[in-house]
Each structure stands twice: as structure tokens, then as C-alpha cells.
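Customer escalation, tier 2.

The customer says the design service returned an amino acid string that "doesn't look like it belongs to this structure." They asked us to rerun it and document both sides in this ticket. The original C-alpha cells are below, unchanged.
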């Protein structure tokens, strides 16, 4: 079993799409093992997206991710990282496949409703950013 981090971004929370996003993941067979709602400070958003610090979209991304509440969740399942990314769809909703979260719910390339880890290394780092070991153990059944 593999674990990955997914986020419902501020646009998804503001538009009351949390349950809809969770439905996509659960119907695809991924299990939610930890979840919380929080609001990132600008500094926390910068730390979380530090891998993008040299890219032109870094400032607008961190402004956006600190603009309102988000929902962080840990998903578990077989090939959870690649399955989560497949369920989310391409970063740009206009290019995402039909039936994906971003095609169905995303507004634009930045306000695309969800974030998901892209590798086992980033999943481990991103899960640890939002969840303590105790919170993760609580998700075990």
C-alpha cells in the first residue's frame, strides 16, 4: 500500500467542493486515512512550494495557496501516487481528460481545485508537512 498527499485548494473549499473531490478519490478506490482543514500563512505556502521557488509562478501560487482555507488529506491504496494524479488530471483544466477532477471542477491552471504529490519522495515530505505520525497512525484500520 502506498500513501500520497492531496489538497483541496482554496478555490475548491470556497466553492463547497470538498465532498465532491473526496468522492472522486473514494470512488476510485483510494482510502482517506487522514484529513484536516487549515489555512496556510504566506510563509508556510512558500515553504511547502519551495521546490518551485525559482519558477515565475511561485509568488502567485503562494499568494493563492495562502488566500483561504485548504483541506489536506492522506490517501492510501495500490499505486496511490499515480492513481491520485490520474484522477486529478492535467494541471491545466483545459488540457485535462474528461472525468478528472480538474476537467470537471478546475477553473484555470492555478485555481485547478487540487494538488497531489508527484513522487514517493515528495509524498513523504508533503505528508510530513501537514500530518504528525500520531495523526497518521489514527488513520490505520
Amino acid at each position: 500500500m502506498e500513501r500520497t498527499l492531496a489538497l483541496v485548494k482554496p478555490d475548491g473549499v470556497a466553492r463547497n467542493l470538498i465532498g465532491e473531490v473526496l468522492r472522486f478519490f473514494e470512488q476510485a478506490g483510494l482510502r482517506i486515512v487522514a484529513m484536516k482543514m487549515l489555512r496556510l500563512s504566506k510563509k508556510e505556502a512558500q515553504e511547502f512550494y519551495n521546490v518551485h521557488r525559482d519558477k515565475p509562478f511561485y509568488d502567485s501560487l503562494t499568494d493563492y495557496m495562502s488566500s483561504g482555507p485548504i483541506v489536506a488529506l492522506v490517501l492510501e491504496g495500490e499505486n496511490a501516487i499515480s492513481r491520485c494524479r490520474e484522477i486529478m488530471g492535467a494541471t491545466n483544466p483545459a488540457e485535462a481528460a474528461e472525468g478528472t477532477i480538474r476537467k470537471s471542477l478546475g477553473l484555470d491552471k492555478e485555481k485547478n481545485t487540487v494538488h497531489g504529490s508527484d513522487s514517493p519522495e515528495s509524498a513523504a515530505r508533503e505528508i510530513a508537512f501537514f500530518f504528525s505520525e500520531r495523526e497518521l497512525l489514527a488513520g490505520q484500520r
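Tier 2 assessment: The sequence is consistent with the input. The chain has a mean pLDDT of 96. The chain is about 45% helix and 20% strand. Sent an explanation to the customer and offered a walkthrough call.
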